[in-house]
Structures are given as C-alpha cells and as structure tokens.
Please model this.
Amino acid sequence: MGFIQASRGTRDILPDEVVYWQQVEKIARDLLHNAAYRELRTPIFEQTDLFERGIGEATDVVGKEMYSFLDRGDRSLTLRPEGTAGAVRAYIEHKLHAQGGVQRLWYTGPMFRYERPQAGRQRQFHQLGVEVIGSADPRADAEVIVLASDFLKAVGIHDWMLSLNSVGTKADRLHYREALVAYLQPFAEELDADSRDRLNRNPLRILDSKDEKTAAIAKGAPSILDYLSEASQAHFERVQDLLQRLKIPFVINPCLVRGLDYYTHTAFEFQIDTLGAQSTVCGGGRYDGLISELGGPETPAVGWAIGLERLVLVMQQNQSAALQAGVDIYCAARGDEAEAQSLEIAQRLRQVGLSVEIDLSGSAFGKQLKRADRSGAALSLIIGEEEATNHTVQIKWLTSGEQITLSQSELFDQAVLLQEKIMLSKPAKKI
Ligand code: ATP
Ligand code: MG
Model:
C-alpha cells in the first residue's frame, strides 16, 4: 500500500522554509502597524453567494475556480478564493462604517482556487492583503501602492516593475466597452476560445489574455485612457503625480484591467521578472462599487493582495532572509542522574529566555557533541556522572572550543551574562 500524499495543488511548508514565512509575517505586522492598519481575521469559508455577487459570475475565479460544497444542512459554502469579499462582508455586517472615517484593514491567510497547479500557482495558496475603506481620495490609492513597495523593500526585494492603469467609472467603462467590442468583433474568429467567450460577457478581460495571438490583437485596441471622463482623468493624474513625488517608478499599461464590474479608477500590479510566467506578485486597485453591491452603504475603497508563495520564492532566489538562528545552548548528558539534571537545567535556563535543546540519544559524548556542532548552538553544556555528583557543568563554546567548568548555581547566576555573550557570537541578520 502506498502512502498518502498532500492533495494536488497543495504543499507542505517545511521548517527550513517557514523561516521565510515568519519573517514575512513579522515584517508585515510591523510595517502595517506603523501605517495605522489593523488586522482583520475572517472565516475561511463563506456563503457561495458572497463571492458570486462580490467577485462577479463572469470572472474565472467564480466561473471555474471556486471550491464550493454543500454542508450537511444543504447550504452552499465556498472556501474563500480571495480576501476582499470577506473583509467587505465583515465591514458591512459589523457596521464598521458607523465608526466613521476611514477603515484601514489588513489580513493574511490561505486562499483556495481550483486551478491547474504549476510553478507559482496552487490550489491552496496564501495572500497578504490590505483594504482602505471609506476614502475616494487619490492619496489612498498612492498610500496603498507605496505600502506595497515598502513591504517588498523590507523583505529584500528591489527589482520589481509597477504597472498602472485606470479603468475609470462604470459609466466610462460602458462607453469604452462599446468601442472595444466594435474593435474586437471582426477578430472574433482569431481570438482564443476563452476570449471569444468573453466577447459579450466580459470583454475588458480580453485585454489581459495571456494567449499570444489575442494579446497581439489587444495591442491594437482602443485605449481605455481615451474614454475617461474629466473627473476620472484628474483622479488618475493625481495618483501618478503623488507616486512621482514619492519616487515610485511605474509604467502605464492601458491593457491592465481587473475585469470586474465594481473595479473603478486605479488598477495596478507589481511584477517580478525572475518569477517567470507567473510574474505578478501583487495585484490591486480601487473598488468603489463593491460595498454597495454587497448591500452596504455607497463607500469607496482601494486595496491589494500579495501572493505569498511567489514572494517567498523570490526571497529564496535572493537568499534575502536571515538564516535560521540555531538554539543558544545544546545540552549533552550521559547517565541516569546527569540526564535528569539536564532536564532541570534546561528548564531553568529557558525560564530566563535562553533557548536550549537537549540531546535525548544517551549515546557517547563524542556523538552528542557532533550533533551540538550541527545544531548551530553557540555553546554546549556537558553533564556526565562526575558533573552530576558534584552539581557542576562543563561549558564548551562551540566556535572557539574554549571549555570551562562551573557549578550549576554559578551557571544560573551568570545566565544573563551568558545570554549577552551568546548574542554577540551569533551571525548578524542579513536583511
Ligand atoms: P493570475 O493572473 O496570476 O491568475 P489573479 O489576477 O488571479 O492572478 P489576484 O486575484 O489578483 O490574482 O491575486 C493576487 C495575487 O495572489 C496574485 O498576484 C498572485 O501573486 C497570487 N495568486 C493568485 N492566484 C494564485 C494561485 N493559484 N497560486 C498562488 N498564488 C496566487
Ligand atoms: Mg487567477
């Protein structure tokens, strides 16, 4: 009988890689706290209707990627494919708008989409996202874009490209949509099957097609930027102006659309070349229509989501993470009494904040000390029969080989000093 493997499109994140994830999470928490964002945690599954209404039935996510199921009470539920719909539902349900002003929220966690698994594309993946709800000001658009760039910088990623576009208001888009369909109609037979299908349902999304032939046709399409109202143009220009002042480089890509009805004005993506085909690490934009669409008051909002698998992949490529620091102390002991004492000593040292790993093998000291070397600990404690009888302990600094004997009470008295010395002997963080 074979063993059971992780489900298709899911993967384990093993301890060596978790180091990167923990670093990302810590940096995100600090950075977002400094920018006045507060964390929101919503359920992993929601009623299917939320995503159908929120994301739009004509999108890939709702059309073919959702993990939906009936529960035992015959309710249709869906594992969340993204975070915005749940955040907005929570915003409306808990009347966060009644608190007045702007809500700055962030979230992180697993998302689920039934996709063809490939590098950078999984069925369970993770996102970190922000939402600024309650401001129509272009400064909010600039703020979230700068935050994404600051975040990438903080995790050691400097080589990205920011693409920017405006999809205007619903009225601008209706106007544009007509012109686009008129342009595409004569090419209908040459479009890829998906795009042909979208010609009537969701033609803007055709601009985003990865199919070569379709992309070439899309290049010649009229630009949405020529169909923006004066107010939409002013909004877009203000966003660009602010980004320039903040020294955030960007390129304008009129083919960048996030084809949902509720998206308005700014749309943007951060791409990283070394990621290959799935190069978008962060996607975002303004969604002034979503909150009212979901039954809340008319409320403007803007946000983004970063794909953490892709982010961690780049961090690994750059090796831009601190190496996993080993424990402070490795405790080698041999003999019943010594082994018992090693547990007590480790417990007391941990109470003052030192990290301690105990060797449980009972093997010869030579073997235990080899493992001590491999553990990355700064020093090893050695407790044999003689030390146990005399209530002493040998301390061996693993880098220098320097070795001394202390009484166990001296060891505890000097624990704080020891900790400082261990800190100094550890390699500096790389970031
Ligand atoms: P794509 O064009 O790559 O399918 P998308 O438009 O579906 O992206 P968004 O919904 O904007 O992606 O999600 C934001 C980010 O989440 C993406 O830029 C990507 O980094 C990440 N992401 C989306 N889907 C997946 C997935 N199936 N596996 C891993 N990461 C993903
Ligand atoms: Mg997708």
User: Anything to note?
Assistant: The chain has two domains: 15-169+229-321, 329-423. The pocket of adenosine-5'-triphosphate (ligand 1) is lined by residues 82, 113, 115, 120-122, 125, 127, 278, 280-283, 305, 307, 309-310 (CB under 6 Å).
